[in-house]
Amino acid sequence: MDKNKEDLDLLEERYGLAVGRIREIYENTETEQTFRDFFHREADFLVQMDEVLRNVKENCFDSMTLDSLREYNRRLYDELLPENYDNCYGNPVYAVKTLGRDYGQILSILYTELRGMIVYAYEQRIWDMTIGMELFLEIYQEFETDAYPGANYLRESIYYYMSDYTDELMQENVDGTVDPACDFAVDIIMNSDLTDLRYLYQFGEYVTKNEEKTAAFLNTLPKDEIEAMARTYTEGYRTGFIVENKPLEKKKTVNIRYTLGFERIVKYAIRQFADMGLAPTIYRTASHVMQKNRKGKNGYYGAIPNQQFEFDHKNDAALFLDRAFIQRKLRALQNAYENQKEKAAEHGGPAVMEIFGEKPFEPVSCKEAVSYSPEQQKLQVMYDNEAGQIVNRYIIGEERSFTIIAYPVPEIGEDFEKIFEETVKVNTLDYKKYQRIQQSIIDVLDSGVQAHVVGMNGNRTDITVSFHELKDPSKQTNFENCVADVNIPVGEVFTSPILKGTNGVLNVSRVFLNELNYVDLTIEVQNGMISEYSCKNFEDEAENRRYIEENILFHHDTIPMGEFAIGTNTTAYRMARTYQIEDKLPILIAEKTGPHFAFGDTCYSWQEDTAVYNPDGKEIIARDNEKSLLRKKDVNLAYFGCHTDVTIPYDELGLIEVIREDGTREKIIENGRFVLPGTEELNEPLDD
């Protein structure tokens, strides 16, 4: 018998046995009362997942109406929705209240792991469904005995589940990134009638009016407009290789990341990438707890049923993370890339299409959720660092590029269509005009040794940023003239500052970072490193600090300022003010609407030794700082695996001035307006 056939037969046998046993659980009334509801509800959910698997396999959804598909989709995610979350075992507060602290935390994490079944069923991923069902059964059977199982035993069950399947799960991650044969999403996009909105329900993701309205709106636009939007996106990717002198001809794949509803643009983008010789890889954002990215979602995804659920479970790995597990996961990642080393070497990097306009998320602190211990925080930092090195060896940093663009979604409000039209204009501004204006800013910046930034209108910013020494100003520059190639839209000049001598206070009244809202965020910097931080999101100051530690510092004790930039896209700023969407702009656009400071790695991390030039031919020499230079001695000390931009809006910006070595100063921005000769045109949108 063929080995693959034998393995498949064995897997289907395991799956059938698991489903059969789970069906019996719902009929069983002997489970101890405290836990009966949890196991019965989860058993009912898993039986429902078997139904989804069979419906997809038998094409049952093809004949359903759009209304029926909506209702079916909502039922799959109903428990997680905000209106039902108070009585959901995915809510650690409810789980702990109902089941006790130890059992509640563990079973809430089990609940979260099992929610991935929805998308596995749609993709017909029987192996993923089987191992989840077997874990559920292993834990359930312990509650059939006379005595409760110890909480440590349950932790060990989940620990060994994660450990035992690490190789397979990491291989799934790598395959999805570099292998175009993993084409579930591509097949839907390229072979569906995108004018029939029922196609959105083939993915298995949660779908709301937001995704439907996005797709319906794009269907109203002429073909040439859609094609032009796709061209802006794909040309940005291609230009990135050209500008950075990287070998696009050696690449065969591009990873497309987007949010459901934008398939019509993606479809044209896939065709345009094909003309460049690139096949798409489009993987779904991770569902397994072990595969999730703690810094946000990567891949494609639909609507998020409940942001609070995501926030409550962002640290679930704390239940099983230890040094042995980290080492096993790193070995598995290394092996997975080794198995795909040829495809990895041919992979060009990500092309990302972000969205904005969703209601800013204000998280509620959840003390019942698991959290990282100090030792686990260090282990996670170690993993991120070493995993980055592994990826960089196989998807070679000096040879890969990226592009990123953003569009609004209908949730932004009644002006959605106008804002969308404005965003298209922002994304296609005359780059030559900005290149010229920005060069005048760079010329004066390069004449100085520091920049001084001061806030106004209640903004307490007062910070001085130090620059690299230019040994030959006729051939060298500190600042990159960003003209909308990889980073769309146009509108910034940026540098990697010298850490020594970079000191002061950065403050913003409100900012949206990594999908989270911050109120009165303050960061103090000493010699380029974060020394103190605070915000006013929560009444408890310790909770505010923990919020920043987890979501800006990402468990590092401190991180450096990796970037200083001056945003010049006053058109985007005017759009935000006109439609009052400042709090909804993504970092991608927001960073162009004022000066910004990024904390973490530099913009050139892993590629510092690759020469980069501005359009005027000058080499950008500010690609390192004192931390990234440590890679030459110990790469583990050089990188932090994060890069978070914090932007000061123009109306909170009192001053940006250049300080020269002789002590003279020259102003670039004063009282929120550009005052440097050659930049006056940037004030026109502000006048509007």
What does the model show?
With 688 residues, this protein is α+β, with helices and mostly antiparallel strands. It folds into 3 domains: 3-164, no CATH class; 175-403, no CATH class; 429-687, no CATH class. The protein is built from 23 helices and 19 strands. The strands form 4 sheets. An 8-stranded antiparallel sheet has the order 12-11-10-6-5-17-18-19, covered by helices on one side. It has a 5-stranded antiparallel sheet with strand order 8-9-13-14-16, with helices on one face. The protein has a 4-stranded parallel sheet with strand order 2-1-3-4. The chain is globular, with a radius of gyration of 26 Å.
Low-confidence segments: none
* Beta-strand content: 15-25%
Rg? 26 Å
The total tally of domains equals: 3
How many strands in all? Answer: 19
Number of helices: 23
Taken from the alpha-carbon principal axes, the silhouette is globular
Q: Main beta sheet: strand number and arrangement? A: 8 strands, antiparallel
CA distance, first residue to last residue: 74 Å
Task: Bin the helical content.
Answer: 40-55%
- What average pLDDT do the residues reach? 94
Order of strands across the biggest sheet? Answer: 12-11-10-6-5-17-18-19
